[in-house]
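#onboarding

Welcome to the new folks! Below is a worked example of what a typical request in this channel looks like: someone posts a single protein sequence, and someone else replies with the predicted structure as tokens. Don't worry about understanding the tokens yet, we'll cover that in week two.

Example request:
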Amino acid sequence: MSFPNALQRLTKNKLQISIRESGDVTILDLRGSATIGDGRYLLSVHLRKLVAKGVRKLLLNLADLMQLDSSGISPAIGTHVSLSRQGGSLKLVCPRGRVQDVLRVMRVADFIPIFEDETQALASFELQAYAAA
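Example response:
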């Protein structure tokens, strides 16, 4: 493999995070790879900053995430625990392929809600707020 091809592959797989909002839910669109190293660190920093700013409803969109390992999911798990203690929540949406396999093997769905589509996931935040009232 030539250097330009190797560099392109590394850049393509690097974790990229876009942040958007839908009502009072903050959505992080993850693209690339959330694995040990930079990907894990970047996700951790974003999640900590959002929680520090008072965000209490987080949705991680995994539709374009190509690779995930236990290190990559750990910031989401820690944030889920922290938000749960503060009356908030973190949920996952649209895991595909290998990412879905990792989540299943790690039994993440036993403690973090996972949804197939964004509309369903967003509605679950409203149902949760209604049930708490």
